[in-house]
């Protein structure tokens, strides 16, 4: 009761300050939301607007001349369906293998009884600061016979060093008494990892999974390097990049007036601006749909270590 009276008195004493702070805080958050959401909503409006009308400018949050032509042009490419399937498959398999492999190594180097703990940790961390470069990486992939192969998307990313450090730090926060009790009951390291570490590490694993999934979904440069000659292994991002390049090439050498006149001649004509906006929506939508299901784990994972028990 005494604490309640003190809290009420303190709040009453600083009521004006709290009120002003709330106004400033809410105003700032609203402005921040608008600043963050406007570019995406603007691209969404442009993607649903006719290319000829978009060239005039003035498209903000709502399409002025609604059309499906931009999406029809993008999905009208024969390779889009197969590349979409490859991207989904790559994201799922790449995320599962990377998170599982990284978590296993993180559990190993988090154990105090692991003799080479310090050496292995330093060896992994050094790879974050020193890289062989593009040509050595290409030669390594070639020697491993991963060129023109789906597994070139998976194998090089099985262990992520930054994610390794994050997961290891979380596992080190798990009480040792849990591991000791499990070992007394006869459990081995693999059983402890599956039945204790993974369930307790769900927040950090969900956070890392989102990072890896976004990387796998958005990656296209490795397709260009290793699988550019294999059309059946092309990803959605790489195909969208080629569509944008073709659109830019078709518009090169034309003035804005020529482009506007040609666009007016055909309502279904697209422009680099409309294609770019459509690509942004197509590439972002799957991640936006997945994020709400991981949000609670993601927020919790980002705040790990903020308060020590």
UniProtKB/TrEMBL annotation:
Entry-linked PROSITE patterns: ABC_TM1
Membrane topology annotation: Multi-pass membrane protein
Q: Which domain of life is it from?
A: Bacteria
UniProt keyword annotations, A-Z: Cell membrane, Membrane, Transmembrane, Transmembrane helix, Transport
Domain ABC transmembrane type-1, by residue range, is 84-291
Primary location class: membrane
Compartments reported by the entry: Cell membrane
Which CDD domains does this entry report, sorted A to Z? TM_PBP2 (cd06261)
Query: Family assignment?
Result: Belongs to the binding-protein-dependent transport system permease family.
What is the protein name for this chain?
A: Carbohydrate ABC transporter permease
Tell me the organism.
Answer: Neobacillus driksii
Q: What is the lineage of its organism?
A: Bacteria, Bacillati, Bacillota, Bacilli, Bacillales
């Amino acid at each position: 009761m005494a604490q309640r009276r003190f809290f009420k008195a303190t709040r009453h004493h600083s009521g004006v300050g709290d009120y002003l702070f709330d106004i400033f805080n809410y105003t700032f958050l609203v402005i921040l939301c608008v600043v963050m959401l406007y570019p995406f909503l603007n691209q969404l409006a442009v993607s649903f607007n006719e290319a000829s009308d978009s060239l005039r400018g003035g498209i903000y949050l709502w399409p002025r001349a609604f059309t499906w032509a931009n999406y029809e042009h993008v999905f009208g490419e024969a390779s889009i369906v197969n590349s979409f399937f490859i991207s989904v498959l790559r994201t799922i398999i790449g995320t599962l293998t990377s998170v599982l492999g990284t978590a296993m190594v993180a559990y190993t180097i988090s154990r105090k009884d692991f003799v080479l703990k310090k050496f292995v940790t330093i060896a992994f961390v050094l790879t974050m600061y020193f890289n062989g470069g593009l040509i050595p990486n290409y030669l390594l992939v070639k020697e491993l016979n991963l060129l023109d192969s789906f597994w070139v998307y998976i194998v090089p990313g099985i262990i992520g060093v930054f994610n390794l450090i994050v997961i290891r730090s979380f596992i080190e926060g798990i009480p040792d008494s849990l591991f000791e009790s499990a070992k007394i009951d006869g459990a081995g390291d693999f059983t402890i990892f599956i039945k204790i570490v993974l369930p307790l590490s769900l927040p950090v694993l969900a956070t890392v999974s989102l990072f890896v999934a976004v990387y796998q979904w958005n990656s296209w440069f490795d397709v260009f390097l290793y699988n550019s000659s294999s059309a059946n292994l092309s990803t959605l991002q790489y195909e969208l990049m080629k569509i944008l390049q073709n659109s830019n090439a078709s518009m090169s050498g034309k003035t804005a007036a020529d482009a506007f006149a040609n666009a007016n001649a055909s309502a279904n004509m697209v422009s680099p601006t409309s294609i770019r906006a459509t690509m942004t929506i197509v590439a972002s939508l799957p991640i936006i749909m997945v994020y709400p299901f991981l949000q609670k784990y993601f927020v919790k994972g980002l705040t790990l270590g903020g308060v020590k028990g």
